[in-house]
Fold:
Amino acid sequence: MSLIEKIEKLRNSKLLVYYTGDRQGQEIRIAGDIHPFCYRHLQQIGELERIDLFLYSPGGITMAGYGLVNLIREFCKEFNVIIPFRALSCATLIALGANEIVMTKNAMLSPVDPSVEHPLGPTVDFGQGPKLVPVNVEDVVSFINLAKEEAGLKDDASLCRIFEKLSQVHPLTLGAVNRSRQEIAFLAKSLLKYHMNDDGRVDKIVNTLTRERFSHDYLISRREAKMTLDLNIVDAEKNDELNKTILDLHNQYDALLSLSIPYHPEIYLGAQNDTIVTLNRGILETKNLTHVYRSQFHIQRVEVTVPPSPIPTIGYQGRSLGESWTLDNSI
Structure:
């Protein structure tokens, strides 16, 4: 809390912290369930000149991120984002709505090209039942470009065959992919126009983030965000005290959410064969109010025989006992 207060004084703002953890094996996403809790924090803060969002996330539902920016802007004239480390995908979209983006040397953004999980989309089965596979819009476009540019298939008959092959993915899924691409471009433009009047600059940023980086996993450094994307980037270390405080605060959340420790049942079982474990996986916090995304699991160590070997090996079973955003000001 002292670190939050220190950043507020250095920035002449109020700070809202939002982390969706990406701990390996326990990842969560930006989602619409955060909005009522965020509203409660903003009500406590009140309407102000400036609000800063201290943001860490691997991404999430784009419309939820768009809605979050609109909600915060209802309470302030100037909205800014502070990025200590990762703000990827939907978190990058949120940053586009900020008047300025404060980034440390280690901070990174990513493309915002969408992936679609459609009920009629492709599935895979790894032995635990079929699971939907997200369809990335750039993969669809890349398949068509591969046929046209690399294989040289340009006549109508060849392109028809390519489209027939592509349509093994359900046509409604492909339609949803195309609609999602148009939607993400619209959302990005809408957020940028909160604070940019240059249509050419806006179009360049949107095209780069939705079309020109080839992979959803591409990482955008602070230098590229500033020099290539022409976003309004502020170097955190221009103020040494602010930079140190940002990193210190991030390190505390890293420890609280165990972001740097991959999840494994043995960490919690120890000498026991079963236990109930409580995991903190996300946090929404202001100076006097804390909500934690908390999960409970019952985990067991079991012996599993995998044919053809007759020798049993150690395995693990886990059962969720519930998860939710929980008020906990004791953290």
The longest strand covers residues 289-304.
